[in-house]
Design a protein that fits this description.
Length: 471
């Protein structure tokens, strides 16, 4: 009993001592380091309440397209399997696989000799029967003269008249045989029935081909223009049909599978006559010129169908949109380099820009600078430094130097990354000749790394410094 009590006392002392040691260590870790910043501080690299680097873009007034997105497949406007219309020996192929051909262009040649012999025979038979017809006609004329002189009976004249008609019918049948032989001789040249792109050759030269062959000689698809079939929800049908009835030009865009490259632009050809009850969608057919052959039959495409346009909408980049407990908002940089929260209501999204309808007390106006990168480190009233500013007059999503009229007035907002640092330092420097990004470098950064970082773009530099600090 006494030993157990002594063991209990010893264990209690050990626990209390360990707790005291842990508490002292945790207090030490929370103390400021030599640079004066807390090791556990927030922000980029634990910078606490220091000014945060951000990228901004100006609020813009522009037209926003109302676009219906769908998925579809490319189909040929016309497809034909090229077959021989007569039986014979394939003696020549005059096309190349994958070649674009015109309607009527000769594709292959069948041995014409048997068909030429048949034509000659039919023409000879026709010539013989034509001669017999002429002789019967002359006899009929003589018989009629004799009948007028009452030298022969009328029955003989009637018999001769019937013979003339019989020979005339024979000549007509012979002429049909000649025409048939000519037509079959012409069919020995296989031509393209439509314009389009040829597929792979299915029969080689030297083979006997027949009109009854299932595979045919080659397939041809019309690809210029080419069609695309896609389905849109029935909820958009009313708006779509309204535009079609007034014959408004509805632009259809075909994009690749990753929605990175626009392949073609076309127009609507027709809509289906009924909504599919299983999917609640209706099929639409569009035509694309496809002059560069970027679309192929049975290819998968993403479709963007523009049904309307919102004129002069207030827009911000989609990268500026933030979501939180207070709803959807953006950070606006003021003239004092402090950010303010502006709650917004999102409208239509068009590419990298989104229509906004502000319902906050303070409205967004054209030219306001909104944060598009670095917002995760901000809060209401935080001080910022603009390091990348989007061009106000450029295309959607293009970043670079632009109109600085709405930039913060703080002189430290200027990018001085081109200036050469003299040595790495763990402590922040307030000198105007020292690049701001050097404040975030680890203490053990080498001179070679500093030279490498100088040549980087701002976004690349920020990511690289973050990796160095994590290491």
């Amino acid at each position: 009993m006494k030993k157990s009590f002594i063991a209990f006392i010893i264990s209690s002392v050990v626990v209390v001592g360990g707790g005291a040691w842990w508490y002292s260590r945790s207090n030490d870790s929370a103390m400021p380091n030599k640079a004066g910043a807390s090791r556990a501080g927030g922000g980029f690299g634990g910078m606490g309440n220091r000014t945060q680097p951000v990228s901004v873009a100006a609020v813009r007034k522009q037209d926003i397209r109302i676009v219906i997105s769908a998925i579809g497949n490319v189909t040929a406007l016309n497809t034909a399997a090229i077959h021989s219309r007569v039986d014979g020996l394939l003696t020549k192929v005059t096309f190349l696989e994958g070649q674009q051909v015109k309607a009527g262009q000769v594709l292959a040649q069948i041995d014409p000799a048997p068909f030429q012999v048949a034509l000659d025979s039919a023409q000879a038979t026709l010539a013989k029967d034509v001669a017999q017809l002429k002789n019967a006609q002359m006899d009929l004329v003589r018989y009629k003269d004799l009948l007028a002189k009452d030298s022969i009976q009328s029955q003989q004249v009637d018999t001769q008249d019937a013979l003339v008609k019989q020979n005339a019918a024979t000549v007509k049948a012979d002429q049909a045989a000649v025409d048939t032989a000519k037509m079959q001789l012409g069919w020995t040249q296989i031509t393209a029935p439509i314009s389009g792109r040829l597929g792979l050759r299915l029969v080689d030269t030297g083979n006997m081909i027949h009109a009854s062959d299932a595979s045919g000689l080659v397939n041809i698809t019309q690809t210029q223009p080419i069609a695309g079939v896609f389905a849109v929800p029935e909820a958009n049908l009313t708006q779509l049909m309204r535009q079609i009835k007034v014959k408004a030009p509805l632009q259809v865009e075909a994009w690749d599978r990753e929605l990175k490259n626009k392949l073609a632009t076309g127009k609507i050809l027709a809509t289906d006559n009924a909504v599919d009850p299983t999917t609640g969608t209706i099929k639409i057919k569009a035509a694309f010129a496809n002059v560069d052959d970027s679309l192929f039959p049975n290819q998968f495409v993403n479709i963007k169908l523009q049904v309307d346009t919102i004129k002069d909408a207030i827009t911000v980049p989609t990268s500026a949109i933030q979501r939180g407990s207070q709803g959807i908002y953006v950070y606006v940089v003021g003239s004092d380099s402090a950010v303010a929260v502006r709650r917004i209501k999102m409208g239509i999204t068009d590419g990298d820009w989104v229509e906004v309808q502000s319902f906050d007390e303070t409205q967004l106006v054209v030219g306001d600078q909104v944060v598009i990168d670095g917002a995760d480190r901000l809060r209401e009233g935080a001080k910022v430094e603009v390091v990348v500013q989007q061009k106000q007059g450029g295309g959607k999503g293009n970043r670079g130097g632009g109109d600085k009229s709405k930039a913060p007035a703080d002189a430290s907002a200027k990018d001085t990354s081109s200036k050469t640092p003299t040595a790495p330092s763990a402590a922040p420097s307030q000198s105007a000749d020292r690049p701001r990004w050097m404040d975030f470098l680890p203490p053990n950064t080498s001179a070679a790394d500093i030279e490498k970082i100088k040549k980087m773009e701002p976004d690349e530099r920020r990511d690289y410094i973050r990796k160095l600090r994590q290491q």
